[in-house]
Request: fold
Amino acid sequence: MPDVQASQALYDLARKWFAIIPPIICPATFAFDAPFGRFTPSQDSIFLVDGLRSWIFMELISPATFLYAFLHSPLSPTAAGTAPPLTLSHPPTFLAALFLLHYLNRAIVSPLRTPSRSKSHIAVPLSAVLFNTVNGSLLGAYLSSPAAHAYLAGAFSSPRFWAGVAAWAVGLAGNIVHDEILLNLRRTAKKNKAKVAKDGDGGAAQEKSKGEHYAIPHGLLYRYISYPNYFCEWAEWLGFAFAASPAPSVASLGAFFATSSPPWLFFLSEVFLMFPRAWRGHLWYHNRFPDYPKERKAVIPFVL
Reply:
């Protein structure tokens, strides 16, 4: 039988550092841009990798490590090495299915529907692989743990659980819809570029190709914020955390670390790591487009 005590010690250590590192990194990331997407370096380099393939690879790490941990129940003294009940009538398995559904879209469906994606610096997928390995493992270990089973007993009759699931579903739908608005901008630009090339002005099209697919997005929450896809993803994982586990104590720093479960750490890490990019991307929009709507906030409607 696997050593449950060793697994618990590793789980607690990973959980502690997962709580500490994102807020430490957050202030530094206001000073530089992660080199992918609109912030990909303009000069080609051996350190730039295919944006689409690297994205799929790094995002598949999360469901892979999640499944491994979930199916092996490393924190269960009586069931270590075995899977929990694999039925949607079992609340932890139901939540596991929600997690996997998100990554089905994020790692496979969405990137395969993307008409183009900029190259990425190798540091981006490498750091994402590390993050996704830790996050997926922690979430899978938690949802297969006795603590999660005890907390989620009777979850299907709990209004709190279904409120969290509803927030997750609305967040996922919002994330997909707002991503689709961006994808449509790229599709339109790609069609226009092909038309220009067909009309015989290929040189001009080549010259304009870099960054041509960037335009001002409109519709839905883009009326209020520059990054509604980020905002919706935060709502999604806040709902997931609300459904999956009790909120951490804020009585003291020690109490927070002791009571922070992986679903809440995932939500908080997303906010800490994504907000700086949203802020810098918001400034980028204003600098690139003189007619960018002045009333738009960065990522939280009417607030920030």
Q: What stands out?
A: Residues 4-288 form one domain. The beta strands are 48-49, 120-121. Confidence is low (pLDDT under 50) at residues 204-212. The chain has one domain: 4-288.
